[in-house]
Design a protein that fits this description.
Chain lengths: ~140, ~140
DNA sequence: TATTGTTATACTCTATAACTATA
DNA sequence: TATAGTTATAGAGTATAACAATA
């Protein structure tokens, strides 16, 4: 029943370890993981329609309402009516939201670097190349849809 | 604000893609992901004390009661009093649970292979080596604690 | 005094359905 | 007729606290 872990098992183990480290680096800001994901997506697509956020985050429309409510409650984003579609709502980051995003992104990237520390520059490049092939080469979740 | 994804970002993207494929391969069996995780852990540590399962799965003791209840309700595992500690309960797989585990493991490994298909044998080996270094070399979650 | 598993309860994240207002 | 976002409601998965039995 015991077997050597193959590349796919190792992949999820490594990603779990990294994710735990990222979650830890999120703590000082009192922002839940799903809130950070939404904040990052909003920053990335700014100004973002709620339904586009739903697609990007792979969650239901209703759930976007939820997380945007909480981000708005924390003063990190703000809603505005879409200028082009009167049914739609777009969110953008407040100054404080943008500031927090950049601080968290810094901590996150530091944690990522620390995680990759066992590998040389050369090895990281190799890893990146192989992983990019696995996710289909095209950088995932790019802003242009 | 747009930046090239580094190895750590790619790592989670790849692992997410793989996890989605694994979840899909779980569907035919009507077993939720967290149930499969618990079933696999139980198989791996058999006979497993509930509190050891909690440690392994990184969830609270109370939550193990929950998932073991549901696995037991599906006839996949069974509880028994620990022979060495009268406070404790151990779970073991039923015949049907063991059978399902091996079928799912097969489907899962097939999905893993399909996912790795873009890489040559050589490249998979390289990937494994690099990832193993990242997770600390010692194969993660080995039975001996 | 500490630990095991459970009962009771509640939280977080996400979902479906029904509705309003636009398109 | 279809879509965007919301209100109302519910589900899954996990958590904390209090407890009884045992260590």
């Amino acid at each position: 029943m015991d077997h050597e872990p193959d590349a796919s098992e190792l992949l999820v183990h490594a990603s779990h370890a990294l994710r735990r480290s990222w979650m830890a680096s999120l703590e000082p800001w009192n922002v839940a993981p799903h809130e950070f994901r939404a904040l990052r997506a909003a920053a990335d697509m700014e100004p973002a329609r709620l339904s586009d956020l739903a697609d990007r985050l792979r969650i239901a429309n209703r759930s976007v309402t939820e997380v945007v409510d909480s981000l708005e409650g924390k003063g990190l984003v703000q809603r505005a009516p879409s200028p082009t579609d009167r049914r739609a709502v777009v969110v953008s980051l407040t100054e404080s939201g943008a500031h927090m995003m950049s601080e968290i992104a810094g901590a996150r990237s530091a944690a990522g670097q620390a995680f990759l520390e066992p590998l040389s520059e050369q090895e990281r490049a190799t890893l990146s190349t192989l992983l990019a092939r696995l996710v289909g080469d095209s950088p995932p979740h790019r802003s242009h849809r």
